[in-house]
Backbone:
């Protein structure tokens, strides 16, 4: 059974995230589990996420989920704008609510860090060569 689509292509947060993610070498987009996923060989960012609170699912539709470095993760989970997403959280992923972001340079850094953690050495070299 396919997952229902849980995003709007016209969402300005998605459009901005899309421009950040798809600027990375060989990056592409697909819909995975009803939300946009940005990937090369592996996914490095998702738009949207959810957590389970008191047995109920709470969606974060305007969020980016990334796989940061361990040191970054520790700081991020202390940030009130961030959440540990269901399913991916135990593997180190963190979500950031984009509506609460004032400086998109921070989002760019997080997406790039996640890309570096998933893209492989050839693509990271291509990124560094820019």
Residues:
């Amino acid at each position: 059974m396919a997952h229902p689509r849980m995003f709007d292509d016209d969402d300005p947060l998605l459009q901005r995230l899309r421009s950040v993610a798809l600027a990375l070498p060989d990056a592409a987009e697909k819909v995975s589990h009803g939300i946009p996923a940005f990937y090369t060989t592996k996914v490095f960012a998702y738009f949207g996420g959810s957590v389970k609170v008191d047995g109920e699912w709470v969606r974060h539709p305007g969020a980016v989920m990334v796989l940061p470095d361990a040191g970054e993760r520790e700081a991020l989970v202390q940030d009130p704008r961030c959440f540990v997403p269901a399913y991916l959280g135990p593997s180190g992923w963190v979500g950031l609510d984009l509506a609460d972001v004032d400086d998109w340079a921070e989002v760019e850094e997080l997406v790039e860090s996640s890309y570096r953690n998933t893209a492989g050495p050839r693509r990271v070299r291509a990124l560094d060569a820019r």
About this structure: The first strand starts at residue 28 and ends at 32. The first helix runs from residue 12 to 21. The mean pLDDT is 96. The chain is about 30% helix and 30% strand.
